[in-house]
Amino acid sequence: MWDYSEKVKEHFFDPRNAGAVDDANAVGDVGSLSCGDALRLTLKVDPDTETILDAGFQTFGCGSAIASSSALTEIIKGMHIDDALKVSNQDIADYLDGLPPEKMHCSVMGREALQAAVANYRGEEWSDDHEEGALICKCFAIDAVMIEETIRANNLRTVEEVTNYTKAGGGCSSCHEGIEEILTAVLAERGESFDPNAVAAEIKKPTSGLTNLQRMRRIEELLEEIRPNLQRDHGDVELIEVDGKYVYVKMTGACAGCQMAATTLGGIQQHLAEGLGEFIQVLPHEELARRAAGA
Amino acid sequence: MTSGIYLDNNATTMVDAAVVEAMLPYFTEQFGNPSSMHQFGDKVGRALKKARKQVQSLLGAEHDSEIIFTSCGTESDSTAILSALKAQPERREIITTVVEHPAVLTLCEQLEKDGYTVHYLKVDNKGRLDMQAYQRLLSDKVAVVSVMWANNESGTLFPVEEMAEMARSAGVMFHTDAVQAVGKLPINLKDTSIDMLSLSGHKLHAPKGIGVLYLRRGVRFRPLLRGGHQERGRRAGTENAASIVALGKACEMAHEAMDFEKTFVKSMRDRLEQGILERVPHCFVTGDPGNRLPNTCNIAFEYIEGEAILLLLNKMGIAASSGSACTSGSLEPSHVMRAMDIPYTAAHGSVRFSFSRYNTMEEVERVIEAVPPIVEQLRKLSPYWADGGPVEEPEKAFAPTYA
What we know:
Oligomer: heterodimer
Radius of gyration of chain A: 20 Å
Largest sheet of chain B: 7 strands, mixed
Number of domains of chain A: 3
């Protein structure tokens, strides 16, 4: 049996806002291929204030899919649609006192339904831009696609490097065999073979020679440079914290919740690293809370 | 016994009180090592001998030395398949089916990575194999055929006796994972061409952590675990004496109850199935209803999801299981349901009810009452359902964007 929180059970056994909203003017239909769950979110949005007056869900899915749909509708009712779009997967999971890592996709689905519904309201076409792979690291809920793309984007060669970049394998280490298999497959694409004895590339300490304040300002400038690219895709990025070589950012708009934000983060990371002239790692802001909790 | 209705006996079973009673002395007064010379070991050795006979009798094996005690069904499966490969290094192919238990499938996937060729026999929409396709694959390149006797999810039976004959004619070793079949169906191995068979104690009211590999006399064998001389050197490691005694007792009881399985257990299953199909619209039995275990029924409830059904059943004290993605721990929907090409709106709502001889007709009636409102409640939440029935052309009316 899954380890569901009391809150998840409560929202499953007694779901709020179940069913379609009458005279809805925003509808979002999304599903997750990896598990076959699907969700329809209907909203009634006040055209003058753009406030969500009512929200309803219909879900074909498991206990936590139903619970996170229920939670999402509770969270967004009464919100301005722009604020609603800022609700993250973690917000939904937090509202439910957490979800098992295997079940995080359930809250992803809720968020995506919201994006689709808002796009529908605005007369836009919404398309999903990430794919989900098989869950590899259960400790940190990292899937195979995320690991593959991170390996490709950063030329990773060892399990340790994969852990440094994605956190996958940084917990109980049971998934190291799986990570080695992914490394073997991805390295084979570029004609290399996986060497279990390879030493992880050393992560250099900050060497930019700037003061902390100068460095932070420089990071902000560099983010400004990259911002128009993100906004063109209806997304945005916000700087949350700089801690040594770690730069924590919050992806917003269309970027938020996109589990493949890793690719985008990779691009931002490259831009910052080049601009600062030092190795830095860009991480989603959820990491900050997790690391604080874990450390 | 805990209250509640337990209809998940294909997952595991209650250890019978008589079985517990039989095994308890082997923790305390009969604690000796059966290999020891002294009296403490001797009595345990005799008890193991008796247990071996009891297992032999249930399986209809010709010799008691054909029974090798292992730790579980998975160990038996791995031992059988890896032994066949090791004993015949020139043979690099394996034949199995797409609907095997992970104990066989995951091993086969690993063997593919190690360079072996694995042929996976497909099934039709009732879970049946194509025997001609099987015949075509048999060759002197094949080290072993491994085919389950009964499917754990649908209960569908494979014609393993016939398949073993065909393998023998082609000079190929035949193994069957019979963990779901032993104790539920009469088995008489000496009249078959089956070379190896796996069974698991906890599926037939013995404890968890004990299994058997049946190895026909004369079949070439290479042990998985080497070490001491236990099990005639074919499975090293000090015997799990108490559990072996328990398994022997459980096999004896299963043998005695065989007719009961075929009659009363089957009638409970049939009553449940009929009761649910009558009361719940848009559901159907998966697998091959005319050719399956007497204790298993698998019903697909369309347009809703299995885990949600199980959670609501559990709230009412009813235990069953599901082929839905979300109950597997892997998020992958059941490979058995997918292999039978069940539409995903139904496969996700498949629920398995599996009986044992300890269930009662009164429990069956309670489950028949409980299921319809649960299905109705979940369908009200489903985007495929509106106004008391499935939406027209459900796959079109609700066509979500998939990630």
